[in-house]
Amino acid sequence: MNNNETGKDKIYRRPTQSSGTPKKKKNEKARKRNVIINFRVFPQEKALIDNRINLSGLSKSEFFIQSCLYQTILVKGNIKTFDEIKKQLEEIKKHVYLSGDLSEMDYGTLEVIRDILEIFEKIYCRNNR
Q1: How many angstroms separate the CA atoms of 46 and 60, rounded?
Q2: Same domain, 86 and 128
Q3: pTM of the predicted model, to two decimals?
Q4: Do both 116 and 96 map to the same domain?
Q5: 62 vs 14, higher pLDDT
Q6: H-helix or E-strand spanning residue 14
Q7: pLDDT in tens, 57-109
Q8: Is residue 25 part of a domain?
Protein backbone atom coordinates (compact mmCIF):
# COMPACT_ATOMS: atom_id res chain seq x y z
CA MET A 1 0.00 0.00 0.00
CA ASN A 2 1.50 3.37 -0.99
CA ASN A 3 0.81 6.86 0.40
CA ASN A 4 -1.77 7.64 -2.28
CA GLU A 5 -3.91 4.68 -1.28
CA THR A 6 -3.94 5.61 2.40
CA GLY A 7 -4.63 9.27 1.74
CA LYS A 8 -1.73 10.47 3.91
CA ASP A 9 -0.31 12.79 1.25
CA LYS A 10 -3.61 14.49 0.48
CA ILE A 11 -4.17 18.07 1.58
CA TYR A 12 -6.79 18.41 4.25
CA ARG A 13 -9.95 20.13 3.01
CA ARG A 14 -12.90 21.17 5.09
CA PRO A 15 -16.11 19.45 4.00
CA THR A 16 -17.51 22.85 2.93
CA GLN A 17 -14.64 23.45 0.52
CA SER A 18 -15.16 22.42 -3.05
CA SER A 19 -12.64 20.12 -4.63
CA GLY A 20 -11.08 22.11 -7.40
CA THR A 21 -14.02 24.15 -8.64
CA PRO A 22 -13.17 27.86 -8.63
CA LYS A 23 -14.97 30.14 -6.22
CA LYS A 24 -17.79 32.15 -7.67
CA LYS A 25 -16.71 35.77 -8.03
CA LYS A 26 -18.99 38.69 -7.38
CA ASN A 27 -20.36 40.25 -10.51
CA GLU A 28 -18.52 43.59 -10.32
CA LYS A 29 -20.33 44.90 -13.41
CA ALA A 30 -23.69 44.48 -11.73
CA ARG A 31 -22.58 46.39 -8.65
CA LYS A 32 -23.56 50.02 -8.51
CA ARG A 33 -20.23 51.16 -7.08
CA ASN A 34 -17.41 48.85 -8.07
CA VAL A 35 -14.28 50.99 -7.60
CA ILE A 36 -12.32 50.74 -4.35
CA ILE A 37 -10.29 53.60 -2.87
CA ASN A 38 -7.88 52.88 -0.01
CA PHE A 39 -5.69 55.11 2.13
CA ARG A 40 -3.65 54.79 5.31
CA VAL A 41 -4.13 56.67 8.57
CA PHE A 42 -2.65 56.67 12.08
CA PRO A 43 -4.63 54.83 14.76
CA GLN A 44 -5.56 58.17 16.36
CA GLU A 45 -6.85 59.50 13.03
CA LYS A 46 -8.89 56.32 12.52
CA ALA A 47 -10.51 56.77 15.94
CA LEU A 48 -11.41 60.38 15.11
CA ILE A 49 -12.78 59.39 11.71
CA ASP A 50 -14.82 56.53 13.18
CA ASN A 51 -16.25 58.90 15.77
CA ARG A 52 -17.29 61.40 13.08
CA ILE A 53 -18.87 58.58 11.05
CA ASN A 54 -20.87 57.40 14.07
CA LEU A 55 -22.03 60.96 14.82
CA SER A 56 -23.07 61.50 11.19
CA GLY A 57 -25.41 58.50 11.09
CA LEU A 58 -24.13 57.66 7.59
CA SER A 59 -22.55 54.43 6.44
CA LYS A 60 -18.76 54.54 6.10
CA SER A 61 -18.86 54.56 2.33
CA GLU A 62 -21.50 57.29 2.17
CA PHE A 63 -19.60 59.36 4.75
CA PHE A 64 -16.37 59.18 2.72
CA ILE A 65 -18.15 59.96 -0.54
CA GLN A 66 -19.90 62.97 0.99
CA SER A 67 -16.69 64.15 2.65
CA CYS A 68 -14.59 63.84 -0.48
CA LEU A 69 -17.10 65.46 -2.79
CA TYR A 70 -18.65 68.21 -0.70
CA GLN A 71 -16.31 69.25 2.12
CA THR A 72 -14.31 72.44 1.85
CA ILE A 73 -10.66 71.60 1.36
CA LEU A 74 -7.82 73.97 2.22
CA VAL A 75 -5.78 74.23 -0.95
CA LYS A 76 -2.19 75.36 -0.83
CA GLY A 77 -1.19 77.01 -4.07
CA ASN A 78 2.01 75.25 -5.04
CA ILE A 79 3.61 74.18 -8.28
CA LYS A 80 1.94 70.74 -8.16
CA THR A 81 -1.50 72.34 -7.79
CA PHE A 82 -0.96 74.75 -10.64
CA ASP A 83 0.55 72.11 -12.93
CA GLU A 84 -2.56 69.94 -12.45
CA ILE A 85 -4.86 72.93 -13.06
CA LYS A 86 -2.93 73.76 -16.22
CA LYS A 87 -3.21 70.15 -17.43
CA GLN A 88 -6.97 70.07 -16.76
CA LEU A 89 -7.51 73.42 -18.51
CA GLU A 90 -5.61 72.12 -21.56
CA GLU A 91 -8.00 69.15 -21.73
CA ILE A 92 -11.01 71.47 -21.45
CA LYS A 93 -9.54 73.71 -24.15
CA LYS A 94 -9.21 70.71 -26.50
CA HIS A 95 -12.81 69.73 -25.80
CA VAL A 96 -14.08 73.25 -26.51
CA TYR A 97 -12.10 73.53 -29.76
CA LEU A 98 -13.25 70.11 -30.97
CA SER A 99 -16.92 70.46 -30.15
CA GLY A 100 -17.29 74.22 -30.49
CA ASP A 101 -20.34 74.01 -28.24
CA LEU A 102 -20.13 74.39 -24.48
CA SER A 103 -23.66 73.04 -23.99
CA GLU A 104 -22.45 69.56 -25.01
CA MET A 105 -19.85 69.46 -22.23
CA ASP A 106 -20.12 66.34 -20.07
CA TYR A 107 -20.84 66.44 -16.34
CA GLY A 108 -17.29 65.40 -15.36
CA THR A 109 -15.74 68.29 -17.27
CA LEU A 110 -18.19 70.74 -15.70
CA GLU A 111 -17.24 69.42 -12.26
CA VAL A 112 -13.55 69.97 -13.05
CA ILE A 113 -14.29 73.57 -14.06
CA ARG A 114 -16.28 74.10 -10.86
CA ASP A 115 -13.43 72.67 -8.76
CA ILE A 116 -10.82 74.87 -10.46
CA LEU A 117 -12.95 77.98 -9.95
CA GLU A 118 -13.47 77.06 -6.30
CA ILE A 119 -9.70 76.67 -5.81
CA PHE A 120 -9.03 80.04 -7.45
CA GLU A 121 -11.71 81.67 -5.30
CA LYS A 122 -10.17 80.27 -2.09
CA ILE A 123 -6.67 81.41 -3.10
CA TYR A 124 -7.95 84.84 -4.17
CA CYS A 125 -9.92 85.36 -0.92
CA ARG A 126 -6.97 84.26 1.19
CA ASN A 127 -4.62 86.67 -0.60
CA ASN A 128 -7.00 89.65 -0.31
CA ARG A 129 -7.50 89.52 3.46
Answers
A1: 12
A2: yes
A3: 0.51
A4: yes
A5: 62
A6: none
A7: 889 999 999 888 888 767 777 788 888 889 999 988 888 888 777 777 788 88
A8: no
